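Z., the sequence and structure:
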Amino acid sequence: MVHIHYDFSLVVGSIAVAILASYLAISTQQFLLGGIRQKSEKVMLLLSGLCFGVAIWGMHFVGMLACQLPANYAFNLPLTIFSGVIAFIASTFAIWLTTKPTLPFARLVIGAVLMGLGISGMHYTSMLGMVVENHRIYYDPLLVVFSVLIAISGSGLTFWLAFRFKNTLLYHRHYKVMIAIMMSLAIVGMHYTGMASVSYYPIDTERLGAIYKTGNGILLFTVIFVTSLVIVAAFSVAVLEQRLEERNRQLSLVNRELANQAVQDNLTKLPNRLYLAEYAHLLFSAHRINQQNVAFLYIDLDRFKAVNDVFGHHVGDQLLIQLTTRLHQQLKSQEKLLRIGGDEFLLVLEQATVEDAIQAAENVLHSVQESFLIAGKSINISASIGIAMYPEHGNNLQDVLMNADAAMLTSKYQGRNTYSVFNYSIDQQETKSQTKLLNDLYKAVDEQQFILFYQPKFTTSTQQICGVEALIRWMHPVHGLLTPNMFIKGAEKSGLIIQMGYWALEQACKQIQQWEQHGLNLFPLAVNLSAVQFEHKHLFSTLETLFRRYAIDPSHLMIEITETTAMHHVESSIRSFRRLREMGVKLAIDDFGTGHSSFLYLKDLPVDELKIDRAFIKDLYRDSKEEMILESIIQLATKLGLTVTAEGVETPLQAEILARLGCQQLQGYLLSMPVGVERLEDLPQVQNEIIGSD
C-alpha cells in the first residue's frame, strides 16, 4: 500500500486558485442578488455557475499536481470533462436557488446539498478517470462520507453568508473575501479529505483482487450515487421552482388586475374617484416644488337621463364609451381624463393656465356636439363644463371640486352647452360677505331661491348607500350657487334661519314621499337643524303637520344636531331628543369631537347615530394621534349601540383605517360629493337598486 505525499507550494497554489475563482463567482452572483434586467439574468447566472465550477475543477487539478503519486498517471478524457460538467450544473442550480428574494431554511439546505454534491461528484468522478500505472485505488468509506459532509456544510455556510450580507457585498470588498475564503475552504477541505481516503496498491499485491474490488466498488457507488443525486435534485428543484414562479406570476397578474379594477371605471376603463384622490395628492405635492397651476374641468352631460329613458341604458352606456374614446384621442401628454360619476367626467390639466383650460373646454364641447351613431340611431348631446384652478380656487381637492362643480352649474343655468370659470374675484368675495348678502337673503327666503343637494352615506363593508344628507344651497340670481358657509351665519343672526330650516324640512319630506312612492330606499334622509331652530317652540308641531300632509314614515327622516348645540342645554336637549324619538324620527349628533366634553352625557342622549367631525379625518394616517382618538370614540359609541359615521373621507387610506377601527359608515368626496336629486338617482348604486326592485 502506498500513501500520497504533497508538494507544499502547490497545495498553497491550489488554495489560492480556489479563493480567486470563488471571489470572481461571488462578484458575478451579486448582479443576480442586486436585481439586474431580465435579459441579463440568465447570462449572469450561467457565468456565476461557470466560475464556481471552474473554482472546484481548477482547484482539484492543481491539488492533483501537488500529489506525489507512486507512478506515472493519466486522465480519462470523457470522465474528466464529465466531472467538470457536474460541477457546473450543481453550481448553477445552487446559485439559482440562493439568489431568490428570500432564502428560507429549506431552500438553503437544498442549495447546500446541491453544491456539496457537485463538489464531491466532480472530485470522485475525476478520480475515477485517473489511471496510475501498475496501481489500483482503494477508498476509506468513512473518510469519503466525511469529505462529502465537509462540502455540504461549507457550501451551506457560504450561501447563508452571501445572502446575509447581499446588501453590503457591493460596497465592502472584505465581505466578499471572507465568503470566498469560506467557499474555498469547503472545496479544499473536501478535496484533501477525499485524497486522505485514497490508498494505492500495486497490481501484484496478493490481496489486490479483494482490495481492488472493494475500492473500486466504493468509488463507483460514490460516483453513481452523488451524480444521480445531483441530477435528480436539480431536475426536481427546477420543476418545483418553475411551478412556484408560474403561480407567483399568476397571483401577481390577479393582484394587478384587482388593483386596476379598484381605481378604474368598469364601463369606460377610465380612472375613477378612488384614483383621483391619490392622483390629486401627487399633483398638489408637485405644485409645492414647481409652483405650476393645475386646471380641473368638471364635465357634465346635458340631459343624459333623457337618453337612458328614451333609448335604454345600453345605448347610454355605448354613448359614454364612444365619448370616452373620442375625448381620449384628444388628450395631450399632461392631461388626464377621469369618470367620477354616471355622466360626469373630470379633465385634469397639469401645469396649465386659465387660457389652456378654456381652450381645452372648447375642444371638449366641440367633440361632444358631434353626433353619435349607436344601434343605427343618431344621438346628439351637449355638455356643461365648470373650470377651477388649483390653488387659486381651492387649496385642497374638496374645495377645488366643489368650486368646479359650482362653475359647471353656472354653465347649466346659462343655457347649457357652454363653460364657466369659477369666479373668485375680490369684488365677488366682498359681495358674498355676510353684510353684503343680508339684504339679498331676505328676498331669497321670500322667493325660495334655495335648492337641496344630497350627499350619500355608504356602508364601510359593502360600499352601498345607507342614507343621504340634505345640504342647502342658495342659487343667487347674480352670483350663482352659494355654499352654506357664505350665508348661514347671516341667516342665524337675522333670524331667517328659522324659515330656511322649515323650508328644508318640508322639501325633505316631499322628497321622502317621492322615494317611498317609487320604492327607492335612500333612507334615512338627514336634515341639519341649527341651534336656533332646535330650540324653536314650533319645531314639533311643524314636524307633526308635515308628517300628516305628506303621509311619510317618520323613521325615514333623520334630524342632525351638532355636538355644540346638544351640549348647550343638556337637560333641555335630552327632553327634545326624547320627544323627537317618540315621534319616530331618527337622531344624529353631528360634528362630534369638536365641542364640549360630551362623553359624560352621551349615554343619556337618545340618539341613533354619531357623526365624527372631518377635523379628525383630514390628517388621519397610520399610527397618528387622530387614529388613537378615533379608536376610542368608535369603541365607546359602538358599546353604546350607536352607528358611527365618518365625515370628510377623501382618501382610500382614510377609508381603510376607519374600516379597521370599526367605523360603520363613510361620507366624503372619496365616495361621492353633494349632488342634485337627479344626479343622485343616476348613481350606479341607486340604479342597481332600481333594477333589482323591478
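The longest strand covers residues 465-476. Residues 5-230 form one domain.

Let me know what you think.
H.
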